[in-house]
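Worked Example 4.2. Consider the chain below.
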Amino acid sequence: MTEITFTVPAEEAGLRVDRFLVGVMPGQSRSHLQRLIRDGHVRIAERPVRPNTPVRAGEVVAVTVPPVAEAAVEPEPLDLEILYEDSALVVVNKPAGMVVHPAAGHARGTLVNALLHHVKDLSGIGGEARPGIVLRLDRGTSGLMVVAKHDSAHAELARQFHDREVEKEYVALVWGVVRAGRRIDAPIGRDPADRKRMSARARRARTAVTRVTRAVQLRGVSLLHLAIATGRTHQIRVHLNAIGHPVVGDALYGGVRRRLPAHLRALGGLDRPFLHAARLAFHHPDDGRSMEFSCPLPGDLQAVLDELPPD
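Applying the procedure from the previous section yields the following structure tokens:
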């Protein structure tokens, strides 16, 4: 068995332990983590906990990963761009429209189905439906993801994400004018009025920071490069909507406009948010060497961008 430990920061004190673990283990669902807790695989001070046990600042939460389960998800020979692979990890360029893991309504055609076909030795830490998944991307978001191939690699990558040692950069097209240097520091939580949405005004929220590192103005829209240290659900989409500049094409967070001026009509053809995970940097979980990957905008986003006039 593999054990992973997480130290509770002051700003997350008081959270239920299952909610705390959802934040520090982003590849795992809350239901899967609750099963681990109920089966006695999660401890604080050597004592088993319940899903609703509150965590305290400075406490160490230990998660013991049970032996790898035989994957029940069917491998599928789906197209998958693998940018790098070794004995510890795989880096892929996820296409837009592909769900990361099987869930209700998405039993097939997911990234996990494709991974099980292309990669034979994935970590079992995510359970049967999520072998090796460390970082998730929304269905409509394209770009870079790292996947662990064994449990100790998964544990070390999860630690790097939790300790904010991983560099993640996204490219987004947003409505209006946003300048480089803008910093959005707004906690994010589940929207109490709509469970499908996240909100920067939720009563129970977790720290989230997004920085605009580069910006190009294009007559009514801005092309942004964004860096995030945290990785909350829908973080970039929520933050940009919160400051009044939603991601173009994002139907969930106000980024779809029906009436477009002639010079922006190309935006009407987007069927997903203009959001791409373009750069990912971390340390190799086995030997600590620096790893950095980047991938250009996919064809659908680049085609839209090419039709926009300069400012």
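Helices lie at 17-24, 30-38, 111-118, 151-162, 235-242, 299-306. The longest helix spans residues 151-162. Compare this with Example 4.1 before moving on.
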